[in-house]
Amino acid sequence: MSPSSTEGCEDCLRIGSTWVHLRECLICGHVGCCDSSPNRHASAHAHAESGHDLARSFEPGEEWAWCYADELLLMPA
C-alpha cells in the first residue's frame, strides 16, 4: 500500500484496530500509528526494521519528523 493511498495505519486497518495519529517511515513509506495509539505500530516498525529510524508526521499541516534511534525531534528549517 503506498502512502498516497493509505487511509490510516496500515497495520491497524489490517487487524481492525483504531489509532490516534499517523507517522510515515521516511525510508520505506510504511504508515503506522503513533505512540499514543493502542498498538504503537510506527515505533514497532522502527524497532523491527533495521535502518528505519526516521518517521514524519502523516497528519495534515504537521511538518516534523522523529528519529527513533536518537529520540530526537526534527523540525523544518
Structural summary, described in words:
The chain has a single domain (3-74), classed as Zinc/RING finger domain, C3HC4 (zinc finger) (Herpes Virus-1, 2-Layer Sandwich), CATH 3.30.40.10. It is globular. Strand 3 and strand 4 form a beta hairpin. Strands 2-1-3-4-5 form a five-stranded antiparallel beta sheet. 18% of the residues lie in helices and 22% in strands. The protein has helices spanning 10-15, 41-48, and strands at 22-25, 31-33, 54-57, 65-67, 72-74. It is an alpha+beta fold and 77 residues long.
Query: What is the CATH first-level class name?
Result: Alpha Beta
What is the tally of beta strands? 5
- For this structure, the CATH topology is Herpes Virus-1
Tell me the CATH superfamily: Zinc/RING finger domain, C3HC4 (zinc finger)
Strand order of the main beta sheet, please? 2-1-3-4-5
Low-confidence stretches: none
Helix content: 10-25%
Shape category: globular
CATH arch. level architecture? 2-Layer Sandwich
Structural class: alpha+beta
Distance between the termini: 30 Å
